[in-house]
């Protein structure tokens, strides 16, 4: 309930005189009051108008107040609405039962008007505080999730950073080893990137890196992942992927990057990458072995003249 809205209070009582008294009392305090005289009607009204608070009689012919309360508490859409019982029953047993059904308070009839108002105000304030707390908590959870996601991401290129990539790769390596599935690693490095920096400056170099990383990220499947391994070097984790499929993907990436026309404020730039691919072998005991072989393959691709794939 936002602070500035008039609280809506539903009053449920089968005795017209009680209903009238309570209604006048609360209308006098400028509450938005909705009176109803039957249990079933009360449940329908709560679902329709979502009051901020309910004053609920116990003894009613069609459905007693306990049942009304239990029904509303069982429904996640209505179970947060505070219910104050207001009844002529004043045995301890009756009161205890009211609380056990989910009531927040109990007022005996004949009631003292000032006491009813004081309890209503208190429970409205408590409900409002609870809603504010829940809202703040939801926002905090969202902020924490965002923070955690940011901590995994390379800020420049938007792909995973090296440490998070390792975390994922280690996990996938364990799965692949356990179930004897194929797994491939592809590493790539931008060719003559130093020239791009030298010719256009670091900021444009950054833009080129970002474009290449995002192009590669778009080419892979959702089960795959891409991380920034270092400067202008990237790494792909390809679960359930054979060496042959890994080489095909690498070739597709090579072509996609070579075809890029990167429009910058200093003109249109093209770039190429060299790629190395390695697959999991039965003797591998850790993911680093595969990464090592992919790195050697990448080095071989550089020696072979760049803009090519070696596996
Ligand atoms: P090769 O084809 O052999 O890979 O040649 P290269 O020029 O790409 O390789 P080299 O290792 O000589 O140079 C890489 C350059 O990448 C040097 C470094 O300053 C630059 N670099 C690394 N990280 C970044 C970055 O985040 N932004 C920019 N703009 N440049 C970077
Ligand atoms: Mg009654
Ligand atoms: Mg390079
Ligand atoms: Mg490099």
From TrEMBL:
Q: What species is this protein from?
A: Chloroflexus aggregans (strain MD-66 / DSM 9485)
Keywords for this entry?
Coiled coil, Phosphoprotein
What is the protein's name according to its record?
A: Response regulator receiver modulated diguanylate cyclase
GO biological process: one example: cell adhesion involved in single-species biofilm formation
Q: Write out the coiled-coil annotation as residue ranges.
A: 126-153
What positions are modified (4-aspartylphosphate)? 57
Q: Which GO terms describe its molecular function?
A: diguanylate cyclase activity
Kindly give the Pfam families that the UniProt entry links to this protein: GGDEF, Response_reg
Q: Which CDD domains match?
A: GGDEF, REC_PA4781-like
Q: Where is the Response regulatory domain?
A: 8-124
Q: Which domain of life is it from?
A: Bacteria
Q: Which GO terms describe its cellular component?
A: plasma membrane
The record ties this protein, via PANTHER family, to: DIGUANYLATE CYCLASE DGCM-RELATED, REGULATORY COMPONENTS OF SENSORY TRANSDUCTION SYSTEM
- Matching PROSITE patterns: GGDEF, RESPONSE_REGULATORY
* Residue ranges annotated for the GGDEF domain, each copy included: 181-311
Under InterPro entries, the record lists: CheY-like_superfamily (IPR011006), Diguanylate_Cyclase (IPR050469), GGDEF_dom (IPR000160), Nucleotide_cyclase (IPR029787), Rev_trsase/Diguanyl_cyclase (IPR043128), Sig_transdc_resp-reg_receiver (IPR001789)
């Amino acid at each position: 309930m936002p602070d500035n809205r008039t609280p809506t209070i539903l009053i449920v009582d089968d005795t017209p005189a009680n209903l009238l008294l309570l209604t006048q009392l609360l209308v006098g305090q400028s509450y938005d009051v909705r009176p109803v005289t039957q249990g079933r009607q009360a449940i329908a009204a709560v679902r329709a108008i979502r009051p901020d608070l309910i004053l609920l009689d116990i003894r009613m012919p069609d459905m007693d107040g306990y049942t009304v309360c239990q029904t509303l508490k069982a429904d996640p859409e209505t179970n947060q609405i505070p219910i104050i019982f207001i009844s002529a029953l004043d045995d301890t047993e009756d009161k205890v039962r009211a609380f056990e059904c989910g009531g927040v308070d109990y007022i005996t009839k004949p009631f003292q008007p000032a006491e009813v108002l004081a309890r209503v105000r208190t429970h409205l304030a408590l409900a409002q505080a609870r809603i504010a707390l829940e809202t703040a908590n939801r926002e905090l959870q969202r902020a924490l999730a965002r923070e955690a996601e940011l901590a995994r991401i390379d800020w420049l290129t938007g792909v995973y950073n090296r440490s998070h990539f390792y975390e994922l790769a280690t996990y996938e390596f364990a799965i692949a080893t356990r179930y004897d599935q194929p797994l491939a690693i592809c590493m790539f490095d931008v060719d003559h990137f130093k020239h791009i920096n030298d010719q256009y400056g670091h900021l444009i170099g950054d833009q080129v890196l970002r474009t290449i990383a995002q192009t590669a990220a778009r080419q892979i499947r959702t089960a795959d992942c891409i991380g920034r391994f270092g400067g202008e070097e990237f790494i792909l984790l390809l679960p359930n992927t054979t060496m042959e499929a890994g080489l095909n993907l690498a070739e597709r990436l090579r072509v996609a990057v070579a075809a890029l026309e990167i429009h910058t404020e200093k003109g249109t730039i093209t770039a190429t990458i060299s790629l190395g691919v390695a697959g999991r072998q039965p003797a591998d005991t850790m993911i680093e072995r595969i990464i090592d072989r992919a790195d050697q393959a990448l080095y071989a691709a550089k020696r072979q003249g760049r803009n090519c794939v070696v596996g």
